[in-house]
């Protein structure tokens, strides 16, 4: 039966990559496999109202925090255009999107992973209502597939805990077209409660879009080495996660973060995405780790903010360290306490 009017709400989290996706092959396909964990506090909440249309022109509207966004809406609309081939029924509806983020708009935290996954899930909810019995595995796999078309990293946000995206010999079900969840039994319990405290070093706009960033790899002199290293790191990380080897985990994620930034610095067009305070934090973290033996590590996205990763057991001492030593490097003393999360919620 045709659905005349429907409204769906999804809250979907951001995720933090441990092995980074940086470089594409072809259209929205990853040059190497990536692996992340899903966050819990950094979320986008999106409501989509679908209204059946007649022969009139399709009406698309996007509201961010209650205010209509013409320019920002373009990104969502071009996304809906691209997925229409996989969800032809979308063209029969007027689409009104209401979205909000839990994190400040200009925090330097990319909202594309949480935003695109939330939107993809709303579109899947309509598909489910139209088609009846859609099983749960198919639902999330296709949501990931659609989200990937909007933003590669968004493909990993539809699952709880750890997710990986891209073909890889260690993961038989892995695909370039959608992400899969890393089976929970393959992740040591210490990683299920891992913390990510995000220090907001620079809340300005990103100096390089990820589209430009990915394309820089095409002509990068270290390109092939990078893709090989990333795929090797997936193999290594898989075993680290199984064993619960936190030291090896920290070593690997820091290497990945710095390699991402080193690639951006040394490419045909050079970008330095760290700020002086990013480096100051890294130095403090490494010194404090050596002095205290605390398992505190960092990773970075394509920006200046620092993600501090540590086991739950270290939380009290790490939060004290942040308060006493690191908060001076945060813009307006801002940081966000997050952790491995349970995935999207309806
Ligand atoms: O999803 P995109 O195209 O915005 O790329 C994200 C790239 C990184 O955040 C830097 C790494 C990753 O794997 O999430």
UniProtKB/TrEMBL annotation:
<dbReference type="GO" id="GO:0005829">
    <property type="term" value="C:cytosol"/>
</dbReference>
<dbReference type="InterPro" id="IPR041431">
    <property type="entry name" value="Mvd1_C"/>
</dbReference>
<dbReference type="Pfam" id="PF22700">
    <property type="entry name" value="MVD-like_N"/>
</dbReference>
<dbReference type="InterPro" id="IPR020568">
    <property type="entry name" value="Ribosomal_Su5_D2-typ_SF"/>
</dbReference>
<feature type="domain" description="Diphosphomevalonate decarboxylase-like N-terminal">
    <location>
        <begin position="13"/>
        <end position="174"/>
    </location>
</feature>
<dbReference type="InterPro" id="IPR053859">
    <property type="entry name" value="MVD-like_N"/>
</dbReference>
<keyword id="KW-0444">Lipid biosynthesis</keyword>
<keyword id="KW-0547">Nucleotide-binding</keyword>
<dbReference type="InterPro" id="IPR036554">
    <property type="entry name" value="GHMP_kinase_C_sf"/>
</dbReference>
<dbReference type="InterPro" id="IPR029765">
    <property type="entry name" value="Mev_diP_decarb"/>
</dbReference>
<dbReference type="GO" id="GO:0019287">
    <property type="term" value="P:isopentenyl diphosphate biosynthetic process, mevalonate pathway"/>
</dbReference>
<dbReference type="GO" id="GO:0005524">
    <property type="term" value="F:ATP binding"/>
</dbReference>
<dbReference type="InterPro" id="IPR005935">
    <property type="entry name" value="Mev_decarb"/>
</dbReference>
<keyword id="KW-0456">Lyase</keyword>
<keyword id="KW-0443">Lipid metabolism</keyword>
<protein>
    <recommendedName>
        <fullName>diphosphomevalonate decarboxylase</fullName>
        <ecNumber>4.1.1.33</ecNumber>
    </recommendedName>
</protein>
<dbReference type="GO" id="GO:0004163">
    <property type="term" value="F:diphosphomevalonate decarboxylase activity"/>
</dbReference>
<keyword id="KW-0067">ATP-binding</keyword>
<dbReference type="Pfam" id="PF18376">
    <property type="entry name" value="MDD_C"/>
</dbReference>
<dbReference type="InterPro" id="IPR014721">
    <property type="entry name" value="Ribsml_uS5_D2-typ_fold_subgr"/>
</dbReference>
<feature type="domain" description="Mvd1 C-terminal">
    <location>
        <begin position="198"/>
        <end position="326"/>
    </location>
</feature>
<comment type="similarity">
    <text>Belongs to the diphosphomevalonate decarboxylase family.</text>
</comment>
